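dude i think i finally got it to work??
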Amino acid sequence: MFGIFGKKQEVNAAKIFFGSQEEGREIVKERKSPYDGSVVSTAAVCNAADVQRVLEISKKASFYAAKVPLSQRILWLEDVANKLSLRREEFALMLTKEIAKPIFFSRIEVDRCIETVKLTAMELANLHGETIPTDVMPSGKKTLAFYRREAVGVVVCITPFNFPLNLVAHKIAPALGAGNCVILKPTPEAPMTAYMFAKLFVESKYATKDALSVIYGDAEIGSALVSSPIPRAISFTGSVPVGNIITKQAGIKKVSLELGGNAATYIDASADLAWAAARCAFGAFYNSGQVCISLQRIYVNESVYEAFAELMAQETKKLKVGSPYEEETFMGPLINEEAKHRAETWVASAKKEGARIIAGEEEIEGIFPPTVMADVTDEMKIICEEVFAPIVSLVCVPDYETAIKKMNNSPFGLQFSIFTNDLKRSRQFIDEAECGGVVINDIPTLRFDVQPYGGSKLSGVGREGPRWALEEFTEIKSVVIC
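look at this
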């Protein structure tokens, strides 16, 4: 295929990392571009023996990984961030090749990844405990008592396709920084992106020997890793069905799950409609709607419903859809044909049930278009489940009370938002929204990597964000000196 610079791109092979040892394989799996079907990378095909080998290497390395000085681990992360910044364009292009993310947003993901690693290095200085007054009760006595945080040992990280660089960073940077050994099973859709990133860690002069391993595969490999007694923590981002399987297979260990959502917003009668429509179009169709906090449900006060619907349709039609290699492209294709077919099926079902398409009727260059559905009702499948596609639904409601009830009536609870100029309403929404994150006067898709990130209900357990991930990947040890 031909890249953005007009030169033929070389197809690279993502190798396995068994600790610091890198291996290729004769049997490989091709990764084809979702945009044009060309082969953009290959990855080794792994098996059960590989899983056992990588587990044993990580277990052995974990005994000394935690003893590496904190200063060295901080230098390690800073070194990776600096080297990634020097190769920004190379990493951005690989993201675009493997998952067809528009090049503009691929660069943003690389920049966010750099920041995530740097933030983790900064937060490591705050990874500490505190003293405890053991004589606070009559039954106690005066001692020197404190607690500290220690690495759990071996951490398994399983990452998705939609942000195959930054979401890897959100897991492995805190896990390694805390002194753990990490086994990364990246998404099969972006093996080369993960390989390139892992190589920065493994080849750093500050690297902890054998602390990071990379293994490729689907459910079989993941199950073998998760069910093993060697890992002490599992961090997974993906679907609810897989999250359920992991929970059952993991046994007694720390498990963090980010399982998606059904993000919603409410457009109040007092809202700035033009701003709300522009931001909602971005939040619904960014990354082709393949975001856990992608805006899917828009509840609009009936007094402004028609005006907002018109503005929303206008903003959606402005978005450039096409080749992910073009600088101006906002949205490219879905990750595969199966995802496209599912989106088409859901739109057809909603139309049959009475919904109207007010933007996105026709494909654009074979790409499923950003689609706005109006007059959607609670009974339609398109609003009840996670769509994970560029589809957003407009629902007319008489008031805020109806909207918040409908928003909370979901098995998911990741992030919600509200557009309003009523301060009292904003405070009420913060109290009443049943979710892990609330945004006022912007989209629920808004996320800063420095924040705690995670949800309630089926959206998962645990939190990401460097500070909170460090807590997930460490354990408390209590100490008393009499």
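The mean pLDDT is 95.
im so relieved honestly
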